[in-house]
Amino acid sequence: MSMKVPRLLYTAAQSRAVDREAIEVHGLPGPLLMARAARAAFDFLLARRPDIAAAPQPFQILCGPGNNGGDGLLLAMLATARGIPTQVLLIDGKPRSADAAAAAARAASAGVPIADYVPGRLGATLGDGGVIVDAMLGTGISGELRPPYRAAIDEINSASLPVLALDVPSGIDSDTGAVCGAAVNATWTMSFITPKRGLHTGAGAAHAGDCVCDDLEVPEAAYEVAGPAFEALNLEQERQNLPPLRTTAHKGHFGRCLIIGGDHGMGGAIILAAEAALRSGAGLVRVATREAHIAGLLAGRPETMVTAVDHRNALIPLLEWADAVVIGPGLGQEVWGEQMLHAALGCNKPLLLDADALNLLGKQGPRSLPPGSVITPHPGEAARLLASRGTVDTSAVQHDRFAAASQLLELWGATVVLKGNGSLVLGTGLRGLCLDGNPGMASGGMGDVLSGIVGAFLAQGLPGSQAAALGVVLHARAGDAAVKEASPRSLLARDLMPLLGTLLP
């Protein structure tokens, strides 16, 4: 096997282009690639489940009529040769591609039991153990599933057995991550040649389980035909953009970050954002908030400067002081929040806009934001920011997160962080996807911490796209570090604070 950590994440069309290049230009025939895929998947299963070979447990391999099914048929041949009880069930008729038909002939000659899938048959033959292999569709899905696939997927998901999906869990659109009516819940997904971008965000990530990719020894030159692809964010790479810590430095060299928010009853958000900015290297952090929150801020984070602001005119000198501005945590959508946002939008400083700043923007409609600005919506906020393009709801955003992020970038002209499982970052020269993070981070205050982190990097002079990319991956890695010793269920936003410094240079 030749598995690598994904660096670039591809669409189905890009993947097909690389496949063709490998076959037609680099002399790797389709049957050879199919055999390598089967071997990679079989070796992966033996490595993950060594008990399979020690005390043979049955393989149930569901194969579609395309080349994904051909991969499954050759995998069945390898398992049979190893003495593992194996059953192939054909979905939607006999193989239709020449390579898949050849694979079926080889498997049959090797004594692999092959039968047509009949709804209800899978559950009757599984028994209490074994492994299911999904080789039904791969990237070859368009629109809603037809009945035989839906029935098979329902049976697979009801079986309570480990499932290996080949290339893509059947029912997942590998471009968007959307579920096409129903989708296999895979334990593992092994992609071939190219990592598929839809498996790493939204519902696609939830169905794919643990993802690996085997390049099947396709040379790097074959990938050039694919063109620009989404990039998996890498902390070690992104943090190289930070300014160096010179021995002659003073606090003014690392930027002045102003954080605006904390209307009545919402002071916690601003405290989290302020500490995150300090922990992420901002030289000076000032908070503009309601007077009621000053004592709590100074007691909790005495390194922060705090100013009570009751109207927009009082904010002007603070905006002039700042190198970058964070607005949104605890801002509220009442008159005070509207006034603060109006003043911030009038300054010519990079803005990080989150939470209620985004909700207020959505009510106002698209406008030009200061150069270097970043918006960090969750799917609900993204839907409100896209309202000018018609009725958009959260489910529409989640159905195609890539399209939603692209529309936000086009509409607002600022770097976009579309938060969620597999956060997307789109900006000048960047199309990034975060592979890090965990479900425990779906808790109150996490977005405020991210706002403070990105705001600190803007204050240190990073362009919007670099600040957002570094902030997103640092935030996610800190969340992962925080759950190494405790359950994700108990994770608090403030648990990330002491870990930020362990991940920065």
UniProtKB/TrEMBL annotation:
This protein's record includes keyword Nucleotide-binding: yes
Assigned protein family: Belongs to the NnrE/AIBP family. In the C-terminal section; belongs to the NnrD/CARKD family.
Name the UniProt record assigns to this protein: Bifunctional NAD(P)H-hydrate repair enzyme
Listed Pfam families: Carb_kinase (PF01256), YjeF_N (PF03853)
Residues bound to K(+): N68, D134, S170
Listed NCBIfam families: yjeF_cterm, yjeF_nterm
YjeF N-terminal domain boundaries: 15-224
Transit peptide as UniProt keyword: no
Function noted in UniProt: Bifunctional enzyme that catalyzes the epimerization of the S- and R-forms of NAD(P)HX and the dehydration of the S-form of NAD(P)HX at the expense of ADP, which is converted to AMP. This allows the repair of both epimers of NAD(P)HX, a damaged form of NAD(P)H that is a result of enzymatic or heat-dependent hydration. Catalyzes the dehydration of the S-form of NAD(P)HX at the expense of ADP, which is converted to AMP. Together with NAD(P)HX epimerase, which catalyzes the epimerization of the S- and R-forms, the enzyme allows the repair of both epimers of NAD(P)HX, a damaged form of NAD(P)H that is a result of enzymatic or heat-dependent hydration.
A GO BP annotation: metabolite repair
Enzyme Commission number, as recorded: 4.2.1.136, 5.1.99.6
Any one GO molecular function term: ADP-dependent NAD(P)H-hydrate dehydratase activity
Binding site for AMP: K419, G420, N421, G422, S423, G447
Cofactor: K(+); Mg(2+)
Subunit structure: Homotetramer.
Catalytic reaction(s) noted: (6S)-NADHX + ADP = AMP + phosphate + NADH + H(+); (6R)-NADHX = (6S)-NADHX; (6R)-NADPHX = (6S)-NADPHX; (6S)-NADPHX + ADP = AMP + phosphate + NADPH + H(+)
CC cofactor note: Binds 1 potassium ion per subunit.
